Amino acid sequence: MEETFMTVLSRQTIRRLGLLTPCLEAYRDPIGNSAGLSVASYDLTLSHAVELVPYTFILASAVERFSLPANVTAMVHDKSSLARRGIAVQNTLADAGFRGYLTLEITNHSAATIELPEGAAIAQVVFHFLDEPSEAPYRGKYQDQGPEPVGAKVARSPYPDGDEPDERDRPGDE
């Protein structure tokens, strides 16, 4: 078996491959945090202002639109400057082949209300080359997602009343 290595993409490769638009050079966002291209990542920005009240969860959208080829995947991470204030972006993977805008799941773990303006950097994305192009790139339910936040697209429950049985009632769990 051939040995392979994970490759994190550099700023110049992110730019050259056109993985997201707009793809801006490094700059300071409206609250002074880094945004745009970094050494080996890209800082996503909010498409609209958000108010994060204490201990709550919201959905928001990024300004940037992704267009990932079959050999590149992207991992969304917290921005450390916001994490230090109690703001977490649920880490998620954008599979190879994904196209569209990301919906970001944001939680305020702090006791303070935090307001972030439109254009504030909210998450850091690290892009990776796959060891070879995917045989089955992403074609899922969020493909070509628009610029507004999209809630979970959940399959209908197989149970008539929509209420799943608890652990004791599931077949095969005897």
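Second entry:
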Amino acid sequence: MRRVVLPLFLVISVSLAVSSVSHVSRAVAQAKATETTPAQTPPRTTAPPSATPGIPPPGAPPAGAPMEGHMQPPPFVFNQAHADSQVAEMLEHIKGKEDMPAESVYKNIKVFKGMPAKRIPPMMVMNFSRSLGMRCSGCHKRGDFASDENKHKDVARAMWTMQQDINQKYLPDMKIDDDQPTVSCWSCHRGNHEPEVNPGVQPESSH
């Protein structure tokens, strides 16, 4: 009986030893593989060149150029067909209220009080926009025409008051060979935001 048990004990012991050696060998192999394989690091990105004052970085728009999404509108060019379309569209918005006082149809009316509402659209497009060479946004805040945020609006009001004073107070007292002498925005501006001063006059030479 001893002869049978002893060999079985030896076989079991040898098997356990071999198994242990196998596990150790695999662990050693994995450790060596870890040591020889370099750790993966994230790729380095090249830092952008340092900015030089006054010189835009490569790929950037030239200095002073409008940024994308903030492009400057093209220069204003008056177009009669487009102006007529604008006036027609504005009149359509007040359909049925054309003969009502302007202040009861439009918000924040100050110098056009008592004027029929139907006169406002052609006055805005033909008189102000055309004469001053500018779009509605020259005096109005985009999306809120009643707002006084744009200071040019108050300037336009003051200029309109001056124009009315000239036409109603001063010109009638002048002896002019004209039944109804009048001035308008066009009289001075001629399609320019700011009227010319002494047009055609060259500065005097320094010698």
